[in-house]
Amino acid sequence: MTRVEINFDGIVGPSHNYSGLSLGNIASTTNKGMVAYPRAAALEGVAKMRHNLALGLPQGILLPHPRPNRDWLDALGTRPDDVPETLRPAAFSASAMWAANAATVSPAPDTGDGRCHITVANLRTMPHRSHEWPATLRQLELAFADTRHFAVHPPVPPAFGDEGAANHMRLAAGHDAPGVEIFVYGLRGGAFPARQHVEASRAVARLNRLDPDRTLFVAQSEAAIAAGAFHNDVVAVANGHVLFAHEQAFEDRPAFYAALKRLLPELEIVEVPASVVSLEDAIRSYLFNAQLVTLPDGTMALIVPGEARETPSVWAWLEAMAAGNGPIRRLGVVDVRQSMANGGGPACLRLRVVADPATVDPRFLVDESKLDRIADCIASEWPEQIAPPDLGDPALWARIEQARRALHALLELDALL
């Protein structure tokens, strides 16, 4: 069996809009009320997947959720023709496109039974995301249905907030080697909520059958949360034996780094000093919400959003880093502006799973030909633009639901409708 890292990208749904639902997410609140472009957003996501395929990286997909979420609205006692304006934006939210929040994934080399364990996130902190988990669970149970190789768990009880892989990192000598799993939780963030609860992280570690001696629980910096780093992946990302982080990412940085080095002697830390790149510039550019990937030749590349190149302090630091003798020597730039404007960069759009592709349902894996067909479907079915007031239009409801049906039919995944 050959295990590799597969990035499963969330396809941006046809209801993509800017309703400013995410408190603490600077981009989301700043762009509230703006006109969104669902078709362009989804095609940007397809282009990002093409970029990664061209690098020789395996690529998968996760599909848009039912929107508006009629089951959720029914449970709240509303009728399709009389949805309160206070509930409508949450019912239409396309935030499931940020697959990094779908679940926490622990690869087989780290788990007690030698299977890849996947625990779906409850996302209970934000109302618009709290109703995502049933559809996520259905997809993951189908994509990873081979119980010889995978165990998919429902969310931890909503008493404790869990936001998935966006607050989880893994370091290892290689993807198929035993690793150190790191759960980053929040304490306080000033006016903003800390979304990841330490008890949720501990529960996920137990469900995923991790070795306690190779599992760390680390507090995210309060300063980072207060500055708008609503998830750890806005200020840190890990891959292989490399941790790439902002100097102000963690509350007790020296103790964390010392514990990591004891567990993984080959660890390399690439730290961006606050004196060179401020937290504000890092968060605005989504420097760390990048995909840090291992290429087929064993080298590492950092795939950043276009906003990183447009932020002078960030791009100057990145160019100097890539020209040096460190482990990250290659930079890639992708355009995901529609996602960025709603508060999610390249890393938000993907869930990383280390597995043998042959053990995954092939309907969730893509190549160039399948991406061509997906792009054609998006171009013909997705709305061109949506402003928040449009969400009350029944014709738009029908257009969004038809677009999703068309995509599922194309991918032979009607069972998820």
Characterize the structure shown.
The chain is of the alpha/beta class. The chain has a single domain, classed as L-arginine/glycine Amidinotransferase, Chain A (5-stranded Propeller). It has 15 helices and 15 strands. It has a three-stranded mixed beta sheet, covered by helices on one side. Helix 9 links the parallel strand 10 and strand 11. Helix 2 packs antiparallel against helix 14 and helix 14 runs antiparallel to helix 15. The longest helix has 17 residues.
Secondary structure: helix percent:
25-40%
Strand order of the largest sheet: 2-1-15
Shape: globular
What CATH calls the topology is: L-arginine/glycine Amidinotransferase, Chain A
> For the record, what CATH class applies?
Alpha Beta
Quick recap of the structure?
The protein has one domain: Succinylarginine dihydrolase (L-arginine/glycine Amidinotransferase, Chain A). It has 15 helices and 15 strands.
What is the topology?
Blueprint: E1 4-10, H1 26-30, H2 38-54, E2 59-62, H3 70-75, H4 88-92, E3 103-106, E4 116-120, H5 127-130, H6 133-143, E5 150-153, E6 168-172, E7 179-185, H7 198-207, E8 215-219, H8 222-227, E9 236-239, E10 242-246, H9 253-263, E11 268-272, H10 279-285, E12 291-294, E13 300-305, H11 306-309, H12 312-323, E14 328-334, H13 337-341, E15 350-355, H14 368-381, H15 394-410
Parallel strand pairs: 1-2, 4-5, 7-8, 10-11, 13-14
Antiparallel strand pairs: 1-15, 3-4, 6-7, 9-10, 12-13
Helix pairs in contact: 2-14, 14-15
